[in-house]
Amino acid sequence: MKKIKATLITLGILMVASLGAVQLTSAAKPDPDAKHDARKSGSNNGMNGPCGDQPDGPSAANPNASNGTTKSGTTNAAIVDSYGNSVVLSGGFNTDPQDHGRPVVLIAAALGVPTEVFREAFSGVTPAGTDSGGPSSEQAKQNKAALLKVLAPYGITNERLDEVSNYYRYNGSKGETWKHTPATATAIVTNGVVTGVKITNAGSGYSSSPTVTITGPGGTITAVATVSFTEDFKTNGSIASVTIK
């Protein structure tokens, strides 16, 4: 009888241990529905980015994340011609101090409105705090309404506002710069002397004039670049011309 009791007790312990292992395994499995809900709750109703409220960098939503007015961005790869001259464009990602890191000139141009109009529209937005994780659903709606109150009379739709916002969204705290394409150029040489600059790729995404440096056998020459702004992302903030000083 004692032997039977001992056997039953042992079986009971094994069953409890097995049940506990099953429960631990089930608890460790992620809930796909929970993950899906988390993605939806983090959407901020399409209000992320320079025209919205995502507090992850110096965007329209989070102007205090970085108050610097200069972005190093990228420098184009210099192409050395047969005369030994190279043209380098660097910088060109400065923003107005009043915009707190937002590329307002690019945003306004893409929306097809004057820069001051977008600034007026954004003055009605209440940015989310840097540690808030984003605005509440209600605040996001209020911000969008404030923007469209000013922009809608110019023909700006909710969809276009979101498109531009998403395109120019970036995280300045991680050293990022908004989307852009570096411009490239080559020197124009006449009788062995650099007389001009030919743009081979106008680039895009420049918010200010980049520094143009021409280096060759004759020394270093600086030039001035003119930036063009359009509603097309591919040409907005492109280099229109380069003039030697």
Largest sheet: 4 strands, antiparallel
Structural class: alpha+beta
Secondary structure: number of strands = 6
Total number of helical segments? 6
> Which residues form runs of ≥5 with pLDDT under 50?
1-48, 53-70
Order of helices and strands: HHEHHHHEEEEE
Q: Which oligomeric form is depicted?
A: single chain
Count of discrete structural domains? 2
Q: Tell me, rounded to a whole number, the average pLDDT.
A: 77
The neighbouring-strand order within the major sheet is 1-4-5-6
Distance between the termini: 107 Å
Helix coverage percent: 25-40%
Please give the radius of gyration in angstroms.
28 Å
The outline comes out as elongated
In short:
The protein is an alpha+beta fold. It is 32% helix and 18% strand.
How would you sum up this structure, described in words?
- The protein is α+β, with helices and mostly antiparallel strands.
- It folds into two domains: 2-30; 44-244, no CATH class.
- 32% of the residues lie in helices and 18% in strands.
- It has six helices and six strands; from the N terminus they run H-H-E-H-H-H-H-E-E-E-E-E.
- The protein has helices at residues 2-28, 32-41, 104-111, 115-122, 137-151, 158-167; strands spanning 86-90, 184-190, 193-201, 211-216, 219-228, 238-244.
- It has a four-stranded antiparallel sheet, with no helix packed on it. Strands 2-3 form a two-stranded antiparallel ribbon.
- The longest helix has 27 residues, at 2-28.
